[in-house]
Amino acid sequence: MNETETQGAELIPLQDLDRGNPMIWEGEEPAQGVFVAPGEDSDPLALLGSPSVTLPVAPRLPSDFEISAALGARLRALDEALQSVAGGERNAARVSLETLDPADREAVPLLLGNGEVSGSLTLDAIAYQFQEAVTPGVWMVTGSDGSNWLEVAAVPGIVDSAASSLRQAPIALPQHVPEVMNGLAVLAEVNEHAAQWDGAAPHNRILNFTLMPMSPQDQQLLIDVLGRAELVLESGGFGNCRVMATTVRHVWAVQYVNAMGNTILDTLEIGRIPDAVLAAQEDFEDSAKRLRQILDTYLDQHCAQ
């Protein structure tokens, strides 16, 4: 377009557009899926929490905060554990925070920051919340019983424990359900593969509902038979991923939502905890360097002898 054409073109003022949010078009379908049905959340951008389009905030402590000897010891223990795992040690490591004073315990998340993965679960009547630090593979865990610790692992050990406590396949399946198209066949396949899963396969088996015709009756059948366990993990980034454990061991509902709040992939994974929420070996290696930089800065400033 030349300069004359540009001068003659009329632009529609933004305030004249009859739309509440210019990033959401009228008629746009809200995010939904087999295990997150339409209507569970009226705001498509709030289904899994507002999608993050920014990097995690860098860890920061108040300028006048003094790291105590007790907190400094825990941070050094965390550093040693992360260095070991980054070097190939496979055993997860915990650092208890329960005996720290309240000020030190409150300082830990300010120091370590919040990363992309978080979750919640219930195990043995205790409700747990866990948050990955800005350094992947480092987790901050709190329990309703007052437990509080840091953990270096691909995922907190309580997630493995909760997943292992679920009922084991094969499970009893209904023989006939009115108005169901593919639900019974899907359940039979899930049942078979969940019963056969022994951890030897390199990858999970994935059933993609995005490409599979599933009626509302099919969806409800899967929810009724497989159920939803009190074990949910969310991974944020440019969009969101929610991993929900069913009540059947090794069966996970995994849903990917883009930054506009629309479901782009709706699946069931049969196998181990889905990779989307796990820290990989390269994450540990990068995190070991990053954590050392953080601790060198704060411990040199506040814990110098």
Automatic annotation (TrEMBL):
It holds the Pfam family HupH_C. InterPro entries: HupH_C_sf, HupH_Hydgase_express_prot_C. Residues 180-297 form the HupH hydrogenase expression protein C-terminal domain. It comes from the Bacteria. Belongs to the HupH/HyaF family. This is Hydrogenase expression/formation protein. It comes from Pseudohalioglobus sediminis.
